[in-house]
Design goal:
This protein is 37% helix and 25% strand. It is of the alpha/beta class. The protein has a 9-stranded mixed beta sheet. The chain is elongated.
Length: 264
């Protein structure tokens, strides 16, 4: 019995101490003011869809104020939600450092493809399959997809397409995204791929930076194997025949590459 009473007293004392500590911290926070704000942009330093000043200007335009404001009056969740509304921002975290500075830690979206469709729209697709609008002040250096693309990014969700086998067969944007994603995982192919072109029969070709004028992919099926064959051909076949020996390479068929000789 004495042990239970002792244990109850310990728990009770701990609870009182915890409540007192929370009260003290809350009181201190109300008395502490924000010294300023620091924007911390994470990720690839070459991606600059938004800069430090634009982040702060965005929040100021929405009525947020930080410097010399009581920490208790600064709603961190609202700040994060506002930042996440920006189409170039993937994640946003707002918190105070020990010096009472507001830290805005931001990850930007990473585009892997720019689409110029046949409907007159132009936009990016990022590494997560999200659509991104173009930016007036920054152009990402990624492959450009064009040609017979008649799907409007305003009417479909690429994430829904990626999750559905039937939709994947219907939408060419899915093939383009899968091809660009696979190319990005291979540094050699990524450096080679300048443009993707959708042909009238929905087959896809890409325009390489050097070598043959066109490389016919067909579709995204077994794309890693196609890129492996292409890389091997570049290193062995073209090194012997010459970089301009062929006008087109065809990767559509399994375990082979069909070459069209350059007649120019």
């Amino acid at each position: 019995m004495k042990a239970k009473i002792k244990q109850a007293l310990i728990w009770g004392g701990t609870l009182v101490l915890t409540i007192a500590l929370f009260g003290f911290v809350n009181k201190q926070r109300k008395a502490t003011t924000c010294n300023g704000s620091i924007v911390d942009l994470k990720g690839d330093p070459e991606i600059r869809f938004i800069n430090n000043n634009e982040v702060l200007d965005l929040l100021y335009s929405k009525g947020f104020r930080f410097k010399e404001q009581a920490l208790s009056n600064i709603n961190l969740m609202e700040i994060e939600q506002e930042l996440l509304r920006h189409p170039a921002i993937k994640t946003a975290e707002a918190f105070f450092d020990p010096q009472s500075n507001l830290i805005l830690q931001i990850n930007q979206r990473t585009p892997i493809l720019r689409v110029i469709d046949a409907l007159g729209d132009s936009y990016y697709i990022d590494e997560d399959g999200e659509f991104m609008p173009l930016n007036d002040h920054y152009t990402a250096r990624v492959p450009v997809a064009s040609g017979n693309i008649f799907e409007s990014a305003r009417k479909i969700s690429l994430k829904d397409v990626l999750a559905s086998d039937s939709l994947q067969k219907k939408y060419i944007l899915d093939d383009l995204f899968v091809i660009a994603s696979a190319a990005r995982r291979d540094s050699f192919i990524w450096c080679q791929m300048e443009q993707l072109n959708v042909l009238p029969d929905r087959e896809i070709e890409f325009i390489p930076a050097i070598g043959p004028g066109r490389v016919l992919i067909g579709n995204s099926e077994d794309i890693e194997n196609k890129f492996t064959r292409l890389q091997l051909f570049y290193r062995q076949g073209l090194s012997q025949a010459g970089w301009n020996a062929y006008s087109q390479l065809n990767l559509k068929y399994n375990n082979q590459i069909i070459c069209t000789q350059n007649t120019n």
